[in-house]
Amino acid sequence: MAEVLQIFVGGVLLGAIYALIALGFSLIYRVTGVVNLSQGGFAVLAALAGYTFSQRLGLPLPIALLCAVGGTTVVGLAIGWFTFVPALKKLSNANVLMLTVGILTLIEGFSLIVWGSQPYSVPAFSGEQPLEIGGLRITTQTFWIIGTAIVIFLAVWFVISRTKVGKALRACSENPSAAALMGINVKRMTLLSFTLATLIAAVAGVVVAPTTTLQFNTGQLFTISGFIAVVIGGISSFPGAIVGGLFLGLVTQFATAYVSSLFSNAIALILLLFILIYAPTGLIPSKITRRQDVREEPRVWGHLTRLAPQTAWIAAAVGIVIAVVVPLVIPAAYISSLTIAAIIFLALIGLDLLMGYTGQVSLGQAGFMAIGGYTAGYLSINYGIEPVFGIAAGVMLSLLSALVLSIVTLRLRGLYLALATLAFGLLIDSCAIGFIDITGGPSGMVGIPSFSVGPLYFDTPMSMYFLVVAVDVVVLFCLFGALRTSFGRALQSIRSDQMAASALGINIVRYKLAVFMISAALASISGSLLAYSFNFLAPEMVGTARSLELVSMLVIGGEGTLVGPVFGSVLLTMLPTIFQPLAMYKTFFSGALLILCFLYLPRGMYGVIAHAMSRVSTPKTVANSQGLAEGGAQ
Amino acid sequence: MPLLELKGVSAGYTGASVLNKITLSLDAGEIATLVGSNGAGKSTIAKLVSGILTPMQGEVIFDGKSVKGLSASDRLRLGIAHVPEGRQIFGGMTVLENLRLGAYSVPSRLSMDIESQLAFVCMFFPVLKDRLGDVAGNFSGGQQQMLAIARGLMSRPRLLILDEPSLGVAPLLVNEIFQLIQRLRGEGITILLAEQNARQALSIADRGYVIENGQMVMEGAAAALAGSADIAERYLGIGTSIGANEDKDARMARELLRIVA
User: Fold this and answer.
1) Going by C-beta distance under 8 Å and a sequence separation of 6 or more, which residues neighbour residue A507?
2) Model's pTM, two decimal places?
3) Could you tell me the domains of chain A?
4) Count of Cβ atoms closer than 10 Å to residue A114 Cβ
5) Which value, in Å, is the radius of gyration of the alpha carbons in chain B?
6) Domains of chain B: which residue ranges?
7) Which end of chain B is more exposed for a tag (fewer CB within 10 A), N or C?
8) Strands B159-163 vs A213-214: parallel, antiparallel or unpaired
9) CA dihedral (B193, B194, B197, B199) positive or negative
10) Nearest to A171 among B77, B101, B105 (CB)
């Protein structure tokens, strides 16, 4: 009995932490209709700053923590003002979600530069000696955390339901245009909600810090747990955030105690997927009617970037020549990086088809890379199977997983789709770590043979590079061919308006499923090739961080172009290799680049290049060539 | 001096104009109505006056001063309130919360004014008085419209813009709403009423403006407009003197010609 109680207390503690983060999500969602995934990043930023102020600078604890929370809130205010608020006007909800991934990456990159990659542990506020209450041992920090959580919940409840500002915030969440008519400054309220959520996250971060080890990327864990909690509870209700947090905390704790710590996450994620199917509004649905504006519908860029046909053929030829010549002239050390860029590009083509063409968000694409990589590696190591069949087996398994996952994803859109795919990726992550006998667990799978077809061995970086480039080119040509048919037009119609597309008689389910399967298969092949190329596979190579990186690469390269992502892939893979000493700036840089692209270069690097090329190719009739570039090639 | 003037106001996107050089004026204590079919530009005029939209050209003058550059909340403080089309009440909040949000632009130090205005509004809308604590989303269309008007009155406006107050309201309640609007004029509030229901709008208004495809096509005293044969035929659904006996084919042909032209 005491044991159960002990676990219960642990669950409540964990639940309080999750609920605090979840509350921030809920607050921003209610006012703007968008989920802010950077929440956890701010929590860790505040915690690390608190560590520096108290341990390094020797400030007294209360002052250090106050400075940390204050500083983080100011940073949040600035980031909100320069990125989040302008983005709300320009971008669809799904893209704002991605933008907040960029903010999260930016914060992590900043933390990496300032604090490095080593873990930090922070002392508890009132000593490490646990209290004994009725046979239970409870750390003093538990009381701090639960106490803080209660104070924050009461404060938020008071502000929202009892003050004029709270009423204005609620008015914005219900009907922004009517709120503006009442004389409420909707923009200011948006910024206020963002800053308040940052404040809550910062307070949560410094209070929780002593119970965990902090690293520059711990924020992801906070964000993900808080996100899961808020969806379980019901995203637009504050009680839902609390209930969801506590529920998730208890489930995780009991699963850790009675099943296995390796699968506690998996259990929580499966639970989440079931909730997404059967009660997508969460355990405590909000009483508030749906938001009245149309921001739920993705606002898409007017048209996809296209080159004029003859320019496109020339560009393709030049591209292939460059791809062939570059490895012959650059230092040999860079070739393996280039190979990785080419392998990742394969997964990106699939993701672009899914996100860029069809408008379906996926934050779990690396999950299929993991399935492909581990399946191929396992079969090749243990059964000496031909790599080609290993890849095929991986593709089969990925397609099967995609089919099962599509039961959940086909009925979801936007935010919930992002969450479901994220949950899938995390589920695969925890399987990759949990099934030690098959995958080698956290230390990875070693001894994967190089790729070979019969007597042909691709065991040098150069040979592997040309193999992968050949695969990329073949896939690209096949897809470009397919997209010129009614298939491509159907996908684009789904992207711009699902309802209208189905009214036109387009079988949305079939097309979405087809695209999802193609993208899963490509990711799977990419994962297998990665395994054969490295002769090694570790969970973080094909984990959720990779999924998020894929999205960054896609947006930076240019969505909806198929070839555009190659720029993102090469840039983010090669830069850290070429500028070795700057490698630690990579995370920061890619976060910043992602945000800048979303705000100022919505068509990515490809868009810029294509625009320049269409100007150069027909300088005399610029307007005409632009028209061709944008509307042609169908 | 007119309370509200629009001088050559145009609005729209570059290349596509929604409103073209609209000029109108409205004296204090008057009811002016904008009539015209769906999409004619009535709501756009309403939004330009309340500051939700900014005009591409022209000037909006309130109480003798240009309101150029003033935000919606500044204009609320000057005394312009806008009851939007489709009511747009806060459905998840109580009636009282909706009304208090109506007075959001009134500084808190004037809380006495807010309370007295609340009492005034409750007197005016007895339906709402009994249901102050109820969640507004469960109300019928007519009751929601009452609430939207009441919410607009909470900022003590001098000019009340009503956009399609009869839309989606049961016919019996429509009469009640029009009577209410007349009583509001009796309280000294100037009213700009955008309505598709031209007959009833003209019957209570002092002045009428007919908008078609973003153009002002006719203006004048409401009674004169209501009596005009052209208006009667186009907006009131009444045939001209011979129209009643005219055979259907000819009428359809004329209708078609009008659409084609």
Assistant:
1) none
2) 0.82
3) 11-128+139-278 (1.10.3470), 309-631 (1.10.3470)
4) 13
5) 19
6) 4-227
7) C
8) unpaired
9) positive
10) B101
* C-beta of residue A472 within 8 angstroms of C-beta of residue A496: no
Distance, CA of B125 to CA of A243 (rounded, Å): 40
Residue B94 is given by DSSP the state B
Rounded Cα gap, residues A241 and A282, in angstroms:
10
DSSP-derived pairing of the beta strands A445-446 and B31-35: unpaired
Residues of chain A contacting residue B100, judged by C-beta atoms under 8 Å apart: 167
Can you name the residues that pair with A121 across neighbouring β-strands? A213
Reference A385, options A315, A475, A449, A331; nearest CA is: A449
Residues A363-373, mean pLDDT to the nearest whole number: 94
Q: Is A183 on the interface with B (CB under 8 A)?
A: yes
User: Is A183–B108 a contact, with Cβ atoms under 8 angstroms apart?
Assistant: no
Residue A479 or A580, more confident: A479
Tell me, what's the pLDDT at A285?
72
d(C-alpha A108, C-alpha A118), whole Å? 13
Best of A181, A236, A292, A293 to disrupt the B interface (most B CBs within 10 Å) is: A181
Average pLDDT score over residue span A557-563:
86
Topology of the domain comprising B4-227 = Rossmann fold (3.40.50)
For A128, residues 6+ apart whose C-beta sits below 8 A from its C-beta are A139
Task: Using DSSP bridges, classify how beta strands B190-195 and B31-35 pair: parallel, antiparallel or unpaired.
Answer: parallel
Q: Which amino acid is at A114?
A: V
Q: What is the ipTM of this complex?
A: 0.83
Spatial contact of A232 and A276, defined as CB atoms under 8 Å apart: no
A187/B contact by beta carbon, under 8 A: no
Best B90, B99, B134, B135 residue to mutate vs chain A (most A CBs within 10 Å): B90
Q: What angle do CA A524, A526, A529 make, to 5 degrees?
A: 110
The structure tokens 């808190």 sit at B108
Among B226, B249, B192, B250, which residue's Cα sits nearest to residue B29?
Answer: B192
Distance between CA atoms of residues B189 and B177, nearest Å = 15
